[in-house]
Amino acid sequence: MAALRAASSNITRRISGSSIYSKTRPSEARWMSSWWNHVTPAPKDPILGVTEAFLADSSPNKVNVGVGAYRDDNGKPVVLDCVREAEARIAGNLNMEYLPMGGSNHMVEETLKLAYGDSSELIKDKRIAAVQALSGTGACRLFADFQKRYKPESEIYIPIPTWSNHHNIWRDAQVSQKLYHYYHPESRGLDFSGMMNDIKNAPKGSFFLLHACAHNPTGVDPTEEEWKEISQLMKEKGHFPFFDMAYQGFASGDPERDAKAIRIFLQDGHLLGVSQSFAKNMGLYGQRVGCLSVLCENEQEALSVKTRMQQIARPMYSNPPVHGALLVSIILSDPNLKNLWLKEVKVMADRIIGMRTALRENLEKLGSSLSWEHITKQIGMFCYSGMTKDQVHRLTSEFHIYMTDNGRISMAGVTTKNVEYIANAIHEVTKSS
Ligand code: CBA
Fold first, then answer.
1. Which of 145, 163, 260, 306 is catalytic?
2. What is the C-alpha to C-alpha distance for residues 153 and 164, in angstroms, rounded to an integer?
3. Which residue has the least CA distance to atom 18 on ligand 1?
4. Per-residue pLDDT tens for 275-284?
5. In terms of pTM, does the model score above 0.85?
């Protein structure tokens, strides 16, 4: 008992000596008016804050084209038929046991095939260190923490612009960030030469964050030829490509085609990392199911990397959730269900492509003197409209249309019922520019 007390007091001393713990003793705390009066409210998240504002608006005309979440043509969230079927199969047969720290091996194996190819030798050779992650965000964060721990001096090159949370993720992992050119505002397309220059001028062996397809927020992806040049140059420079693939299937309607950039890099012999998410392409947003993988030199290295990734996960969330992982593994391992999934992904992607045409046509019909060609040229879930912050604010205050300040429209929220209303509002706020 005495030994236990001594050990416990040692631990207490060690903890209270550490800088993240308050130095205030409980007896002193009684005299303080509050423990947390130095904490100020956090600024609103630039994307999820839009949904909060949308929900608080009571207008019957309100439209949310903020967050990238798919809606059907009635503006309703969708549960895919393949998911419903998988749920029916597991109903009542599921125990609620913990998954291992690295998640479901079955799910991870099936997920890797989507990124690396169905018959990938790399998977057979066990050269890929992979763990189930808390959707795409969790996969990126786990990688960023891993990068900080095992390449502590490294930085991450991030495209301008990018998904705003990328900056938060690498900031919180304490990896310093460098930016690289990506979007060319004048052409509303890719700044290919700017990007290539930045890749060339980065110190050898730099980490580069790449969007595998359907770049968020711009909807602008390199062509296959451009990806080949990017890959070659990154190889020459010995850079490490990290692909965030949150929208596989949403660019072209075909997950296989959307993995093209990764396949090009694999063919060129890169060692790389991939974040995968089933939020969008399986509609499993709230299930938080995804995968982090890192291609290694050999099986031995992959094993070490995997166990270290698990070690990072353990004190954060211990192990990932089981339900979404089961759905994904059932769907991907049953050829009928997988086919159904592929059809449903295509339906979602096609509806978005249709809405791009409809939005552009409606704006042109209204006699807008501006060019809206980029709406149909861009791909994936988003249209980077080119509207200014003031124009976006007018859309919200006068028309109850909610989107991010950077003028990004989530095309997934546009429907045949609201497209005319949205076009009219966009025309109203842009016609004098
Ligand atoms: N990477 C990119 C490029 C993304 O756009 C998103 C989602 C994620 C994370 C990763 P999840 O963790 O859900 O798998 O996705 N981005 C958003 O769709 C939204 O879900 C968006 O509206 O930009 C978000 O979290 O901001």
1. 163
2. 23
3. 68
4. 999 999 999 9
5. yes
